[in-house]
Amino acid sequence: MSATFPETLDMMRVHRASPKPHRGFTARPRRGFTLIELLVVISIIAVLISLIAPAVQSARKAARNLECLNNLKNLGLAIHNFASANGARLPAVESNDSMNINGATAPTQAQIRDSGYGWPVSLLQYLDRSDMYRQMDGTYFISAAEWSNIGGTCPNGAGTCSGSISGNQLNQWIKVFTCPDDQNNYKVPLGLSYAANIGFVPEALWSTTSTGGDNPYAATSISNVHHQEKVDYITAAGTAASEQQLAARASGVFWRDGSQPRVTLDDISNGDGLGQTLMLGENIQSGNWISRDTDYIGFGIPIAVNSGTPTGTANGAVGGASKGVSLSLNSGYQVWSATNDGRMNANLNAVRGAAPRPSSNHSGTVNFAFCDGASKPLNSAMDQRTYAQLLSWDGQRRGQGIVDASAFNN
């Protein structure tokens, strides 16, 4: 039976809708980018890296600086805890149990050279390191061999260095004592990035710091003579007049024990104020935390002297002979820079112990802890008169005037 007309049309439609496939051709999905697409993607990635990398580096730098400030704050807190346990008295820059810390008698030269330890060791109990403090509790000498183990020398020769402290046990890095940006001390055994405010130092004594090294008891050096009995604005060892002792004491926060009592937080609060007085500062030329050398563990500024009083006309000249002007700063005052520059961040290539001034590897700033417990960065190019005022804690009553808070608070 022949097909009807509609059926014929349907067959024609099916035939047309089913074309024969082309032989030798197989459709495949594309894999990967074309060359142009790849170049575009690489360019975008490069742009993103160029934008993100500086931000990441800046964040890492800020984190290191924050850790440095946090270390200073923790050290300041430890000092406050020390003061709370010791009648508000601050640690001595070097403590010596053979001295009378209440100021009844002046220590002899031999006592100054006797056993003792610097302010960092005084804080070990308040930094959760009582184990290390027990190894160096102020009643022992360090033997000559052990001085050698920790990279120093026996102060007076082997005859005066004896005892049983293990230099190897003490030869450790303590994180809170170092700043991550201090390549000289960070993660270095016995490393110390921070120094204590030792106030004004006669230029003749300051000039002895050029050689560096841990030799805390040289006969005529800042290391030995920076003492209330000795740092009396005279250039030779001897007994100072009482008013000059008081002037010296008021110029800095940390001192060796002597006939004048240690500075207390109450003294500072009743003087220029805790928030206007520096306690600790960075110094990448600081030395071992176990050291007693003032060059290693302290910072100050050199001053010019004239005839036994802190008067003069040169840069760095300070004050006069009477109490009311004993710490006044001459017109146009500049920190002494003629010998072993005492300005912040000066002589950054100095060897450890040769530059007892504040310094850091931060861009344009140096971190400090104030006596009120605050830690903050200060501009390394700040007004030098203001910087000198921040070192002394009783400057207003001694001719310096009131500290301008806007000059150092950013």
TrEMBL record:
PANTHER family per UniProt: GENERAL SECRETION PATHWAY PROTEIN G, TYPE II SECRETION SYSTEM PROTEIN H
UniProt-listed PROSITE patterns: PROKAR_NTER_METHYL
Phylogenetic lineage: Bacteria, Pseudomonadati, Planctomycetota, Planctomycetia, Planctomycetales
Pfam families from the UniProt entry: N_methyl, SBP_bac_10
Domain of life: Bacteria
Keyword Electron transport: no
Originating organism: Schlesneria paludicola
Keyword flag Transmembrane helix: yes
Ranges that cross the membrane: 33-56
UniProt KW keywords: Membrane, Transmembrane, Transmembrane helix
DUF1559 domain ranges (all copies): 57-384
Protein name per its UniProtKB record: DUF1559 domain-containing protein
